[in-house]
User: Which sequence fits this backbone?
């Protein structure tokens, strides 16, 4: 594979405070007052870094400024081998931030100061996959651009993956948010949700019921739902798998879902399931294997501070 995976969405700086150890000992951030720490983040940006660390050429379409946070983001993305699409760095733009507060178990809650207005979206020849999700898919004016772009890919030989990553502080109405997720999911081959997403978007429904609803459209072939410390389930048209999470000492959960998503895409690519095949040939065994790979990538991220996804070598050394 020579053409990069295309990731579309926000890049921002997480200002993390609280939690075990107060989030002050990570390797890729800057300490602030009251033990807070500024680290590069944003779900799509985290996925892009995760993909690059796992060895996939990756291009990110985003937008951030040249202020101190923007400089930090740029250094982080470039340092990890992520290509930035033209227009992603804009001197007139103020870099967005997310304040992440950790509880005693290391679980994060977020408040956002974000603007989302991406540069032009286009598909490169040979691109195997397009990934998007999180705030970028719901915050205007950029969300409308993403909807149009994904709709234009219907006849293109590319696999589309989506992680809505619901943010109640951005979209507090679950009914309208679910409608938007359903519409966007209908343009994706694979949809990934967390159990928290499910509880917010469709309270009272089981993960399997939600997966069944998403799989009722022609395009969507697979739904994966993460369950925190319990692992994840994967559901396709022909199979259902459950994968348990390994026992670890959790430092915090920041970026764990994004590490999972990048490893899921990387696992599918390694099995030749991206591009024009659009998951055709996804068997029960291959579904189990890629979900297991993703669960273990997320577990590594949970053992260290902030959104710090593993490299392919780290994954191999930890889990074999």
Assistant:
């Amino acid at each position: 594979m020579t053409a990069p995976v295309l990731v579309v969405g926000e890049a921002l700086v997480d200002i993390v405070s609280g939690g075990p150890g107060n989030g002050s000992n990570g390797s890729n951030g800057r300490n602030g007052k009251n033990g807070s720490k500024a680290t590069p983040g944003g779900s799509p940006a985290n996925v892009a870094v995760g993909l690059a660390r796992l060895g996939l050429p990756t291009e990110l379409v985003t937008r951030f400024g040249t202020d101190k946070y923007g400089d930090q983001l740029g250094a982080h993305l470039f340092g990890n081998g992520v290509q930035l699409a033209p227009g992603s760095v804009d001197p007139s733009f103020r870099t967005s931030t997310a304040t992440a507060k950790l509880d005693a178990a290391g679980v994060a809650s977020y408040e956002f100061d974000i603007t989302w207005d991406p540069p032009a979206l286009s598909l490169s020849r040979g691109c195997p996959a397009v990934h998007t999700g999180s705030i970028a898919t719901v915050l205007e004016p950029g969300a409308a651009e993403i909807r149009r772009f994904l709709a234009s890919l219907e006849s293109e030989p590319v696999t589309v993956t989506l992680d809505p990553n619901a943010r109640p502080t951005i979209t507090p109405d679950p009914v309208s948010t679910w409608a938007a997720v359903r519409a966007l999911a209908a343009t994706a081959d694979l949809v990934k949700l967390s159990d928290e997403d499910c509880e917010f978007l469709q309270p009272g429904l089981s993960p399997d019921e939600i997966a069944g609803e998403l799989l009722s459209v022609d395009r969507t072939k697979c739904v994966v739902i993460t369950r925190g410390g319990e692992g994840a389930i994967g559901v396709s048209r022909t199979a259902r798998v459950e994968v348990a999470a390994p026992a670890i000492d959790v430092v915090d959960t920041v970026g764990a879902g994004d590490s999972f998503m990048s490893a899921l895409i990387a696992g599918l690519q390694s099995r030749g399931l991206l591009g024009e095949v659009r998951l055709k040939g996804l068997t029960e065994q291959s579904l189990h294997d890629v979900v297991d790979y993703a669960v273990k990538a997320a577990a590594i991220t949970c053992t260290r501070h902030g959104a710090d996804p593993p490299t392919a070598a780290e994954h191999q050394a930890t889990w074999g």
User: Anything to note?
Assistant: The longest helix spans residues 284-302. The two ends are 24 Å apart (CA to CA). The first strand starts at residue 5 and ends at 8. The mean pLDDT is 92.
